[in-house]
Amino acid sequence: MLLAEKMDRDVTLIGTGLEALDVVGIDLPDDRLGREFDGRDSDDGRPHSLHYAPLRHAGVRLRAAALNRWFEEADPSLLVVDVSVEVAMLARLASVPVAYVRLAGLRVDQPHLEAFRGASTLIAPFHERLEHPDTPEWVRRKTFYAPGLCRRPAVADRDPRRITVVLGRGASPPPARRFREMALAIPDHVITVLGEVDGDGELPENLRLLGWVDDVSEALRGTGIIVGGAGDGVTNLALASRARFICLPEARPFDEQAAKAMALSEQGAALVLEEWSDAGDWPSIMEAVLHLDAEAGGRLDDTDGVERCARHISSCAEDHRYGVYA
């Protein structure tokens, strides 16, 4: 949505669950095997160039048919594919140019490399300094690095005693007890938790559990310290806010968050914790995070990131429309 708002051409949004979000676009059938889904199936007979190709799955079949219908009717000049190797391959087979969004981590398996090879351009939603050291040089050369892909949070009036914990959607909700103990351990800090937690009970005066919010960037106003995972969304917001960042990488395929967290630490832009700390450790953690270079995050951000990425996508679409890539 954020990029679409900045594009200078017609954009069609395609995905699963758009109707539930009241977003105008093409709502694709769900092709997952189950709720606990990491993008891969366990079929030993699956072609080596794919992560996910279950047999006799109606959702997969209907999804591919809907995409092919749209390819034929719309004749798109470019399809921006967010992560899916299979959609990128389908588009290439249908003669539709692809801009492939690749995440962090070491993605040198055959499906990823073939999707990278078939794409016209690769888009990495992070700074080049956060690249995995073992990423092949040809992949780097093909990549447009796009840090700063987020709604810009206000950077003024940062209070180091205000902490915001940003939870992700990819794991089970953590217990509310965890944040209650944290708040009691550092009573001179105000802690706000964004996202779903398990349980509630009586809360200390310096703890607020807000659940999911529509605008995370607005909820970060005035925050001096952000606690969160190493996914692109949270990381980009933390770097853009210029708040100090306590990063707890979550387990993800291809070491996505572990590799990003390591790079953030090497750049001096985050204090990385391998797991949630005991309550008694939080006072010393607060002291340690204040020693981070306040400007380190800004060096990995781009205040013009959304506009710059939108221009790149538009340029690729324009080139394909007029045969520059032929």
Can you describe this structure?
The protein is α/β, with parallel strands linked by helices and 326 residues long. It folds into two domains: 2-147 and 304-321, 3-Layer(aba) Sandwich (Rossmann fold), CATH 3.40.50.2000; 159-300, Rossmann fold, CATH 3.40.50.2000. It is 33% helix and 15% strand. The chain has eleven helices and twelve strands. The chain has helices at residues 2-6, 58-74, 85-93, 110-118, 137-142, 176-185, 216-219, 232-241, 256-266, 282-289, 305-321; strands spanning 14-15, 26-27, 79-82, 98-101, 121-124, 143-145, 159-166, 190-194, 207-211, 223-228, 244-247, 271-272. Strands 9-8-7-10-11-12 form a six-stranded parallel sheet, with helices on both faces. Strand 4 (98-101), helix 4 (110-118) and strand 5 form a beta-alpha-beta unit. It is globular, with a radius of gyration of 21 Å. 34% of the residues are buried. The model is unreliable at 322-326 (pLDDT under 50). GO terms for molecular function: transferase activity. This is Glycosyltransferase. Keywords: Transferase.
